[in-house]
């Protein structure tokens, strides 16, 4: 199957002769539009950009085919590759053994010529031109149905390239099934963020081509590397780039975050600065990050400028006079979703905080430390994994979800869960908390969700639920869709699964203090209405699509119960009549 366009003039519309292009104001027509019309114009422009990108990729692929055909034709005319005598055969054999290419005299091949020509026309580097030609070829031959979604503006170039690269190790036999499933999933859902699309692509590959996942992981392990070079744009800085397997990357990221969070609140550095300093501390062999608050930072030594002698004298202090003081504990702000336990769902979806097994207590003593110093109270590096309980028991090999990174293989996940701390939460409850018991009703009237409820809500999502956001779900807030009434909790929104959703701090503030409106339906789909009136679905693909046991049914309602009873009655009546007819008409008929 090949992806082709209809008959459209590639040149497009041109201005009429004599039209003053220089005096035409391109941005003038947009200046008088309302915000609603501006959003519509932006979305239309994005869709047209996707269509034009699709045409550009096809043009790049067709150009490559033309140049490759010309190259092969010219080469065949000048040299057929057949030896006319024994001497020619010996000479050709000697050239091959010496490493000289038999076709070097014909210059660049068709692909190299197309790269140069397309790159010059599009003002691209050679690497970018190669990428566009390969993307066009994949759109036409490997992912033609997914390429159709690009032509229909359901995805953009960045998302199509994600699908292309994450299916690169799928063999040709399984590729049609993967392409069809991927196109169907894209067309069946609203546009989604990069994180959700990436997870959906990985799930489809795990389902239809599991061997490709193993080949991809083997390639990721071999392709690891790290480079440190001066930054071309910022003098005095260096840029660090590298590739490591996702599990190792998650462990390093958690380690840096834990070290950065281990300092006192009075430390004036930002989180990014502390994480950078933590990486440098690891490079110098330190296991913790020195705090730079006023209480911990050493005072500068006073020195007289007129004399090189220091103004501080050394005194001998007996050891009994030295008293070790505990550093003050950092203040913890109790937000409505910041504390999360390691959890495993009772109905089959475990969620765990897997601790980095290489990290020990921040103490230099080999014995277990029991003191309360700031170093020993630093948080342990943790990351979160969601998985089916049946996978942990070895009954299936479904992948797990590593928060912030994507799907991981079952074997790797089992190894991480072996040392993880986990508990259980309950899923699939059909009744509202007020109808369950008094304890659940009391919990629904508290502002801060319980740890198990927080974990249940986060396990059902992949990231922030605001449209287009990719913030990992275990690093964001939990927001009440219907606002919680602090003065009268019984009259406001309940602290329940159907009234909670993950939102990053930025979008949490936008939703709370802006003109946005949000809602959740019975199936936990989250809808956002912009100030312009446009409505967006925030979570087209969620953790509930990955783990079936996390899916919940709408709460019981008398109207639906009546229809269910009528359906059951009709079924029983039909079965009884069929059984009676069978008794009255025994074989042979």
TrEMBL record:
Chain positions covered by the region annotation Disordered: 215-244, 551-589
Biased amino acid composition, Basic and acidic residues: 215-234, 557-583
InterPro entries membership: DUF222 (IPR003870), HNH_nuc (IPR003615)
Any Pfam family hit: DUF222
Stretches assigned to the DUF222 domain: 107-297
Protein name per UniProt: DUF222 domain-containing protein
Biological source species: Gordonia westfalica
Top-level taxonomy: Bacteria, Bacillati, Actinomycetota, Actinomycetes, Mycobacteriales
